[in-house]
Target: Lytic transglycosylase domain-containing protein
Amino acid sequence: MNIRFSHLLAAVLFLSLTAGNNRYDGQGDEEQKARIAKDYNIHSLPLPEDLTLGGESVPMDDPDVRERLDRELLVNTYWQSNTILLIKRAARYMPDMKKTFAEEGVPTDLTYVGLIESGFQNVVSPAGATGFWQFMESTGKEYGLEVQGEIDERYHVMKSTRAAAQYLKAAREKFGSWTLAVASYNMGMAGVERQLERQKASNYYDLLLNSETSRYVFRVLAVKEIIENPDEYGFHVRESDLYPILKTQAVTVDSAIADLAQFSLDLGINYKTLKYHNPWLRDSFLKNKDNRTYTFDIPVDKSFIQSEE
Model:
């Protein structure tokens, strides 16, 4: 029998056997409409009237600003699975990130830039931007990150966080505005400077920009608003649902490691766990020809490691 025909026949038989099993069969259109109205509701969102980013007020009296914010609030409120994941990951990473930003003199709410950049995942963009903070190789090196074959500190959560804070601080010094600094994180400082001069403007909200950058600051604002006020947007996440901060201890090494898998076992963990906590290690060894000192994060609680009997 032709394979495609046999698959079609099986599908027909399945539908015929299951027909009538739907518990809503037999309802008329009016009953169905009533059920939808009762059980499935999508609400328009009231917009907050007082919003700030980096301590700078958002001009909510501007109709364009209101509509752009409305769009991002709706997208992130009704993309429920993604936003719940953002809430959970933010609980793990943001406390330490906010400490680092504060140390660098950068407003702590700008840590939401990293959240919309990557969802706090070590992703790589089509253009090659890498890690939580999506640094290109050249920019990462400019802000002190080591990027070479076996080491890529764009994947180092806290080192890349400090680099991002330093970038934002430099952009703030250039433009005199944290909001423009955030826009430049997406567009680049040169791009923002060019548009300010071309349009004879002085702030982000007066600029006509490409689609991505025109949405960028509003995505940061929307995610900040939802995560800081989850109940108001229908997100009910218990404390026990949040991803906990993982406690680690530091192990320093200033020599080569021929086999990171064996190194992991010697520390009482496994290779996967070593790489999970230290994703900046990009190979199965560490040549370390210059005998640099590297610090590894090793979990304090190792009870989940399956020991070999």
Summary: The chain has a mean pLDDT of 92. Residues 248-299 form one domain. The CA atoms of residues 256 and 287 lie 5 Å apart.
